[in-house]
Amino acid sequence: MDKSQYSGNIPPLLQIGDVLLTGEIITEQFCCDLSACHGACCVEGDAGAPVTLDEIGEIEQDLDTVWSQLSASAQAVIDRQGVAYTDRDGDLVTSIVGGKDCVFTAPLHLPDEENPDGIDVVGCAFEAAYRTGRCSFCKPVSCALYPIREKQFSGGSVGLTYHRWEVCEAARQKGRQLRLPLYRFLKEPLIRRFGEAWYQELCDVAALFHPEV
């Protein structure tokens, strides 16, 4: 890494390998707070989560594992059109119920200390099964990376941007309380997507601007 290209304030756009990313990914602080948002990102919006053909294959392979956790409406949508569809932009995305809810949304049972008020919280049925060792597929990498969004460019390069959504305000507040940068919060999915070496270079670049994190 040529550290000389990074000096002074963090630039609005950085390049690490073949990946272009906005400086907000380093500077923004973020930590999901399910007890506050109740899993809103799974049930808000107007399209499903972007998926690859490989991910669709993994979803179909492990679908039986989570089937009983899905709502009857979600099961009906999957029976009718499958686990994914092509949206208005021509992208493959997970199927949705009622124009917004991801079909893989399921109730989550958080420990009492994380949800003292006993509020209904939802999340990804696949992730819940993966975390308890019941299936090999976690969830689409586009979901795991949120609020980072990925865009593919011609020539093989990738762009990463931070998506600011009002339903994630509690996550921004919690991130500030914990002083947890977004790229640190998303360590696991960033490594899953781009590899250990790439993530370490991201950390090295971030340390030039924020040595304390």
Task: Report what the structure shows.
The chain is α+β, with helices and mostly antiparallel strands. The chain folds into 2 domains: 1-30 and 147-213, no CATH class; 38-137, no CATH class. Helix content is 38%, strand content 17%. The protein is built from 10 helices and 10 strands. The protein has helices at 24-27, 34-37, 53-66, 72-81, 125-131, 141-145, 169-178, 182-185, 187-194, 196-209; strands at 13-16, 19-22, 84-86, 92-94, 96-97, 101-102, 105-108, 121-124, 148-152, 158-162. The strands form 4 sheets. Strands 1-2-10-9 form a 4-stranded mixed beta sheet. Helix 9 packs across helix 10 (196-209). The longest helix has 14 residues, at 53-66. The chain is globular.
Give the number of domains.
2
Oligomer: single chain
**What integer is the average pLDDT?**
88
Percent in helix = 25-40%
Count of discrete alpha- or pi-helical segments spanning 4 or more residues: 10
- Return the string of H and E elements: EEHHHHEEEEEEHHEEHHHH
Give the neighbour order of strands across the main sheet. 1-2-10-9
Radius of gyration: 18 Å
Number of strands: 10
Unreliable segments (pLDDT under 50, ≥5 consecutive)?
Answer: none
Instruction: Supply the helix-strand structural class.
Output: alpha+beta
Beta-strand residue percentage:
15-25%
The major sheet is characterized as: 4 strands, mixed
How far apart lie the N and C ends?
19 Å
